[in-house]
Amino acid sequence: MDYADENEPLIVERRRGSSTYGSDSRIRTSEDTIINEISDQNGSGFANQTNGGAKTFVTGSRDVLSAKYESLDYDVCENKILLDEVRSSSNNFLVRKMLARWLIFFLIGVFTALVGVAIDIAIDKIATVKYGLIKQAIDECIEEDCLYKPYLIWAGMNAGFVLVGAFLVAYIEPVAGGSGIPQVKCYLNGVKIPRLVRLKTLFVKAIGVVSSVVGGLAGGKEGPMIHTGAVIAAGISQGKSTSMRSDFRVFRYFREDHEKRDFVSGGAAAGVAAAFGAPVGGVLFSLEEGSSFWNQSLTWRIFFASSVSVFTLNIILSAYHGHPGELTYYGLLNFGHFESLNYDLFELILYAWMGAVGGLLGSLYIHVNYKLTVFRMRYIRGRWLKVIEACLVAAITATVAMLMMFCISDCRSLGQDPTENPIQMYCGDGEYSSVAALWLQNPEASVRSLFHDPPGSQNYLTLFVFTAMYLGLSIWTYGLSVSAGIFIPCLLTGAGWGRLTGMCLGAIFPNADWVDPGKYALVGAAAQLGGVVRMTISLTIILIEATGNINFGLPLMITLMTAKWVGDYFTEGFYDLHIQLSGVPLLPWEPPAMSFELSARGVMSYPVLAFSPVEKVRTIVEALTSQTYNGFPIVERVQPTKSGNGDIAAIGKLRGLILQSQLIVILQRRTYVYLETKPDNEPPIPLAEFRNNYPRYKNIKDIYIPEEEMDYTIDLRPYMNPSPYTVQDTASFPRVFRLFRALGLRHLIVVNESNEVVGMVTRKDIARYRAKSNGALGVEELNISDKL
Amino acid sequence: MDYADENEPLIVERRRGSSTYGSDSRIRTSEDTIINEISDQNGSGFANQTNGGAKTFVTGSRDVLSAKYESLDYDVCENKILLDEVRSSSNNFLVRKMLARWLIFFLIGVFTALVGVAIDIAIDKIATVKYGLIKQAIDECIEEDCLYKPYLIWAGMNAGFVLVGAFLVAYIEPVAGGSGIPQVKCYLNGVKIPRLVRLKTLFVKAIGVVSSVVGGLAGGKEGPMIHTGAVIAAGISQGKSTSMRSDFRVFRYFREDHEKRDFVSGGAAAGVAAAFGAPVGGVLFSLEEGSSFWNQSLTWRIFFASSVSVFTLNIILSAYHGHPGELTYYGLLNFGHFESLNYDLFELILYAWMGAVGGLLGSLYIHVNYKLTVFRMRYIRGRWLKVIEACLVAAITATVAMLMMFCISDCRSLGQDPTENPIQMYCGDGEYSSVAALWLQNPEASVRSLFHDPPGSQNYLTLFVFTAMYLGLSIWTYGLSVSAGIFIPCLLTGAGWGRLTGMCLGAIFPNADWVDPGKYALVGAAAQLGGVVRMTISLTIILIEATGNINFGLPLMITLMTAKWVGDYFTEGFYDLHIQLSGVPLLPWEPPAMSFELSARGVMSYPVLAFSPVEKVRTIVEALTSQTYNGFPIVERVQPTKSGNGDIAAIGKLRGLILQSQLIVILQRRTYVYLETKPDNEPPIPLAEFRNNYPRYKNIKDIYIPEEEMDYTIDLRPYMNPSPYTVQDTASFPRVFRLFRALGLRHLIVVNESNEVVGMVTRKDIARYRAKSNGALGVEELNISDKL
Question: Which architecture does CATH list for B347-581?
């Protein structure tokens, strides 16, 4: 067959020269009317949002998707060269690959735990010195009336520590900021987040977490552990590091999106497991956040990595704390041992009520933090400003603590001293200030104090002010240019008001044996955390595992359930909100309700750029240079049909799909692939060559092709995916959505009734539709912008 | 448009008039050569199995699929009448539906627990009386040398009890036999198992379990609990009972395969949760056995049902055992309280070794039981034979017990008495026979004894013989015509040799504090159970929850992992084997390795029976009468194309898909739907009418249609699914498999490059391919028979 004769470029002219559409997304034009009609039918007034993409972009809008994010590709490209490789592989190779998988999951578990332990010990050592110094200074100054001295030491140390982390995050690697959970969630959902899983990010994250926790910020090291696990998994499984520019030449057969993501989900699970001592919770976190398809053997391996991670951490931490071999440190965050967590039936109503309060407070937290985030996006844009803000918040944290210690006198006798650094302040001899006890330790220790201190360790005022202050500080802290998670601040705030609730109940029912402030602190902590993060089954199980008490599962569940319901009524979940703000095209679990009216034809991008099975080099180079599309249908052109297609041209019968990255690799290896003189029996480029270039391919501009070779042709057939998934243009949106989501696709080709390509559906085409936010039935459309 | 003009039947003549193909399956003929070629390439010698379907059917073959099983349909048929209903529904309705879902899951949890409690209490009461009588008889006869008396009492009672259950299962409802787990697994996989979730089945199951446990058979009530939960879920969610012929007219909007299966997976989870006190394990069981698609909100509801189930059970059992409100009975199977389950690092190697032993013994168990099952399928076919065999085994169990008590003298002093019915036998005064202690209680109590008895409660011989005997009896028991599960016999056998291992270790290392026979009994129990059932993450978590010790998760995991690996090397898992024997077309998680060579064209069934969008009544009636196909493409006929299609005719451009059940309902309502005089604006049959007929539709033969109406036409367009999922005929088998599995399809239409229907892929077309069983690379094909 002589395809070369008809290889005029199959590029249909673009309708609108907008450059605001990114690579995964394709141009859509007149179909906007469809959604407008739906909007108008329901009279929702959203029509103004959807009139074309020309609307001015507003920073901090939740209705805009960023054009810069691209998709991972989980679909295996079953081209000829893959089949050749599979055919020649032996049973032996399959076994070796299987063993390599288990080995990698083992290593992920071990290394995640090691990094977690290193962070934990660093924080422990530094914090001991820091709080020791402050205690010493306060003890000296309380008599000499020089309390400004310890205050300055405290504020100075806080700001100094935070400076390191903030500088690293702001100047070296911004993606290491925050907890990393939203980003990992996006990655597992199938979105490429640039630099998320690089070694440099891990480095900044680890130092950043230590600096922000010892810097006294209201943040924890648990969220970052999840990110840490993800980076480690990506690094080990790919056997190379871009940051270190080294390739260990191992595990090369795992170098594809599909395999990498499986490992990363294991890493995230190992991170959760290490953080909370919760191997099952880790698995469920990975499933809840990441899975679209349940894979039994993958789940089993993830559980293995999580268990190994908890075990390794346990061994090392037990030895570090002087009990080698005892295996009693299940996770970085230790809730301490609950003697008994019994409850009466009627208490479930109290827990539900506390869940509702958690949902309310969580929504408040999210709403204020949202406003603050938008403010930051608009006004705190310079890197140095970000660093200064972080240091300022650190200093203010110290200020709040000192002021509280100064103003509130809450003395307890030393006998039941629950803290390492009891401080007398203005208390009598043999007494210590319970306010100082709460502030002069790491927040995790304070959580434990609130869970386990005997009744009457604090008075109402102490707890109330502490909780309120900590709530405010934690809202202010998240979004700073530092690495820190929100689990601990939420748990601490919740434990605060939960314990307060327990104390009130104790005052009302003085003789009731079911009233235990520690138990109510636990329920409050769960309620607050659930109200903010809105996780369901995984959070329940993480908390069950962290308390080590299976019996208390139902109360925790009821608390989290009402927290989520009440919270969802008011705001989105915290992570979802931050994902919306960054414009990531996350796909939800289900298509939006009432999206039946939309069709594939209505959501697809068109016209589509396509190639012939045997294509001219010039056509390909021009297409790659002018566009940043990631996938191109391969079509055999037919006579244009006019059968009721309206104004959308059918391009040709579908023959396959080829990716931009494949074309780049082919063009790189020009000498023996597409030279006109190439003999017919020349083998195609082996698959290994494509793998070696993964995941960072050259830019087309960096590939030199002599002018005379521009008229040669390339046979794309050995490389293309010969049967890509397609959908009829009349298929409803929910069907398109389910197909796309269930199979983890990056490109879905839309064909007409004669199997001719008419359009392409990518992630952004799907993610841009959501249920109407004003509660009405129907869907609304988001804009896509490259300014985000 | 006047479709009626061209509505000649679109039935292409069938190539081969074989009636051995069932309704879901379509005729395949010349494509068999494809698989033969693959076989021949690898020289595997399997070609003889695949030469047509004419091979003689051999009872007990594992290479044959039964033609009688049909698929559930998870794909929503988005036809016009559904869209009309959705459009007219209010937000209020969506909320009500959501609340109804939660309510149903709550009720599933409560009722599953109630049935579980009823079974448990019945067994407890009857067994107490039974063993009391036997003990009394033995005590009286030991001096008077009349031991034949208690033996006859024992054997008689056993046979009598078992007679009830065996009769019910054999004569009333055979699907209630066994544990029900394989059947539930198939249902969750998407296979319709006739009468599996009927109320009558539940009734037989409940009575059957009580009769077989009090009848002394080596079986447990845990597996049946899972089946019980599934039936309860189906019953509650559908708001009607076919067995009771009553329709409560509630929850009608849940009457479709998709919704029903979601509830059934919740019921199975609630059953596991109630059986083992393992809510998380229940959820993971449902996921591991049933899910192909991870659905977050469904998982959360399943967890809710499981927690409610455990909670309800706990409340009632605590009250029953005289501790109301204490909530210490987490499940029906109680492993008892492990004081401490610590382990040293090197012990993990021992556990792995024990796992391997478990895998070996498990394979032995499976192999012998397999041979026995095939024997039963061939020779024990009469119902009365089945009843007799069951009673015989019950009597033999009593015989074995009496013989062991008679022959083995193993006396312990009464002080540390661990049983309710200590029997002196030939022991001295103040002593009891430890052999009798093991036999004279329910097997669950024996499991607890082996876990918790102080070291030295039995001697080596007792344990060895007991374990060997119980292993043999349990192999013989499973497959009898009784309701009983294999969890308990496996746990008991494993606990036996595990404890024996622990005792040996104790003899070798007399001063080691890590040697605890109870701990090793637990590991042995896990190893044996894992070696038989081969479940992974769910079993690990069930055991963790049943022991209440999160810390011991890693050892259990390592044990189960090696048990599975070693076992898989020798045989299939127990449930999988029984599923294979019954010929159920279960779909595995992944397509078989090396199935790339097969294409959709190679596996599809053809020719396909199709209808026009507007079709003559006669054509439809004839098609439904002559065939039992479940889905029919709707096509618009075009000129036959000859473009390289070989001998497979393209039928026409695809327009939609209609189900047999829909056609039946349409024909039933003939008067106002298809009468020739029907005015154009006559509304189509509402969706409610289709729902009310679900799931048991009339037979076409029971619908009377006057001859004069036979020439009328029906407009099928409002009812058909206008955009069914399709696949190109060139797509590889793994792609077809993934699409089918991920979307839970029942029919996948195969189209050619012009979108013309050429074939249909159903579950059996996919399930019949599996990786070669002789370890070679490649796939082999199973036969399909209607004799199974």
Answer: Orthogonal Bundle (1.10)
Count of A-B CB contacts under 8 Å: 174
B579 token code pair:
């599923």
Q: Which residues of A touch B748 (CB under 8 A)?
A: none
Pick the CATH number of A104-320 from 3.55.40.20, 3.30.360.10, 1.10.620.20, 1.10.3080.10: 1.10.3080.10
Provide the chain A residues 566-605 that lie in CB contact (below 8 A) with chain B: 589-590, 593-594, 596-597
Question: What are the structure tokens assigned to B27, written together?
Answer: 């005729």
Chain B contact present for A530, CB below 8 A: no
Does A777 contact B91 at a Cβ distance shorter than 8 Å?
Answer: yes
Enter the DSSP assignment of A750: E
Is residue B247 classed as helix, strand or coil in its secondary structure? strand
Q: Are the beta carbons of B725 and A732 separated by less than 8 Å?
A: no
For chain B, where do the domains classified as CATH 1.10.3080.10 start and end?
95-243+254-320, 347-581
Q: In this predicted model, what pLDDT tens digit does every residue of A414-440 receive, in sequence order?
A: 765 556 778 877 787 878 888 888 888
SS3 call for B66: strand
Residues B99-153 have pLDDT tens digits of 999 999 999 999 999 999 999 999 999 999 999 999 888 888 877 888 888 899 9
ipTM (interface pTM)? 0.86
Does A561 contact B at CB distance below 8 Å?
Answer: yes
| CATH 1.10.3080.10 domain locations along chain A | 104-320, 347-581
Residues A543/A351, Cβ–Cβ less than 8 Å: no
- At A736 the pLDDT is 92
> B294 vs chain A: nearest CA distance in angstroms?
5
Range of weakest confidence among A197-211, A399-413, A679-693, B675-689: B675-689
Q: How many residues are given for chain A?
A: 788
Residue B399 tokens, joined: 């015989």
State how far the Cα of B401 lies from the Cα of B135, in Å rounded to an integer: 13
Residue A57: which pLDDT band, with cuts at 50, 70 and 90? low
Q: Which of A86, A719, A681, A78 is nearest to B38 (CA)?
A: A86
- Helix residue spans in A198-256 (DSSP H): 199-214, 222-238
Q: Which amino acid would we find at residue B192?
A: K
Per-residue pLDDT tens over the stretch A446-492: 998 899 888 888 889 999 999 999 999 999 999 899 999 999 999 99
Instruction: Please list the alpha-helical segments (H only) found in A380-459.
Output: 383-407, 434-439, 443-452
Minimal CA–CA distance to B721: which of B657, B646, B639? B657
B643 pLDDT higher than 70: no
pTM of structure: 0.88
Omega before B706 cis (within 30°)?
no
Name the residue in chain A with its Cα closest to that of B326: A342
CA distance A621 to B787: 61
CATH 3.10.580.10 in chain A, residue ranges: 3-69+589-785
Residue type, A579: I
Q: Looking at residue A45, what is its pLDDT?
A: 33
Question: Torsions phi, psi of B279, nearest 5?
Answer: -60, -40
Question: Under CATH, which architecture does the A3-69+589-785 domain have?
Answer: Roll (3.10)
Domain B3-69+591-785 bears CATH identifier 3.10.580.10: yes
Q: Where in chain B is the domain with CATH 3.10.580.10?
A: 3-69+591-785
Structure tokens at A386: 């970000």
Taking CB atoms and an 8 Å limit, are A554 and B308 in contact across chains?
Answer: yes
Fold observed for domain B95-243+254-320:
Clc chloride channel (1.10.3080)
Longest dimension (CA), chain B: 98
The pLDDT value given to residue B293: 67
Relative to beta strand A726-728, strand A747-751 is parallel
Phi and psi, residue A429, nearest 5°: -65, 145
